[in-house]
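Morning!

This is the sequence you dropped in the shared folder:
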Amino acid sequence: MPPLEVGRPQPTRRHVRENVRLLDDLLSRAILHLDGQEVADVVTEMRAGKLALADLGEDDALILARALACHALLGNIGEEVAGRRRHAEAELEPYDGPPRTLRRAVENLRQEGLAPAEIAAALTAVTISPVLTAHPTEIRRRAVLAREAAITRLMALRRHRLPGDLDRRLEEDLFREVALLWRTRLHRPERITVADEIRNTAAMVRDSILGATEELYADWEDLLPAESRPLQLGSWLGGDRDGHPGVDGTTLMLALQTQARIILNRYSDEVRKLWSELAVSSKLAATGSALNTLAEASPDLSPHRRDEPFRLALETIWDRLSATANRLAGGTWPAKGEPYPEPRAFTADLEIVRDALIEGGGQALVGGRLRSLIQLSRVCGFHILSIDLRQNAEVHERTISELLGAVTAEADYLSLDEAGRVRLLLAELSHARPLRSPFAAYSDETRRELAIMDAAAKAARLYGPGALGSYIVSKAASVSDLLEPLVLMKEAGLGGASPTLGVSPLFETIPDLENASGIIADWLDLHGARAMPGGRAVQEFVLGYSDSNKDGGYLA
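The structure's back. Tokens below.
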């Protein structure tokens, strides 16, 4: 069970017991219905403590293990649904604890007398970036997660008082989902690949995260200053190659291509729905020149659409999205327009439609769908999740040493002291001379490092710099550890002294954590370092990760 959250309502024991009892009963009924009385009796007697595991044969032991796993999954669902119910009820109760929502926090600030400009400045400065890390230990299959989601949705409906026939139908649907869960293999037969991880994460993003992001921004619409994007999504999928040989330039491009396919499909569906809604005739409402220009670019020659500039404009947008999908997501859509060069151009076209609606009838004609689509395009661009790159500092050292060794007769890089390394790396960043040579024979490791940097540069060109998040240096222990990836970025065309990616040291081991403040101070004192965060006047660093736990425990 997760720890209790301060200020967050917790599920009542009664609701949990009711939910768990119902799901347990449904599973018992499913086992009886599908596998018969004998199997059902084994599970029941074992759970009641009447049978010892040693008394069971292999087949019965496997059935029992599966039954216990299903009971555990369903128990978690019962508690989660009870928690959601308690949270919904708590919103109606008096509460004087810490604010649970952004809206409540802003209301508190207003009550405390802060000026609107002060609140707007604070909201503009906020960045919340949930990051999905790579190589998860999740062993459940997507098929199992889908069953869990369906059961959770049906259980959530039970908190409403339903007519008898609907309640019976709901219980029948629940029984079917639980029975399907019982018939679904719970584990994967083989270890998943990076491509599997990307597909699994993409499904979660498509089915849950995008919708939640839209809901949050819809709720915040009247709170946020124009263009403010406090919530931004990140991922390590496809870019975290620290100790994982399966991550390379190909996986980075696969992750971005997969994400682009999801978001462009979402945009296209929403544009099509807007097309159905906005059958506004120019004979009944005047439209501005910007919308008319967009409409005139449509290849639609239907006489039924000649006086419908909104539909023609949306047809133009849809065609350009199709061409963009073909370019970024490997699509094969019939596309008659030019692809959008960047997400801002797509957003600008949507804003033309919005402004024309406002001009012809005010904000009331805009509607939530178009407002949400504009905000989603600003937040997600053509990539949804900004992908962080991560590699161990020792790999960077070896790569830089090999590159330098192939073109210079200077002392071996690995034998230099810290001051010597910093001087040499700064010198490399100060000129445009390429360090790598097409005629040199590099090791497999160095070729992989150069290839993923090249892929990152291609990704920045195709999807925009927002598609890449931070460059995280694992086990950073010195200033040179932060300069080395900058040299590699320069070689790939990702910047150098003015990088596209900000370098973020990750301090993991106990000595590195103890030395972190000194390293950061030395880095910020370095001439030119303040111009190297990657387009932001913010230096990001990461304190602790999995190796910290292994090295010094949770507290460290």
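Headline: Confidence is low (pLDDT under 50) at residues 1-9.

More detail when I'm at my desk.
O.
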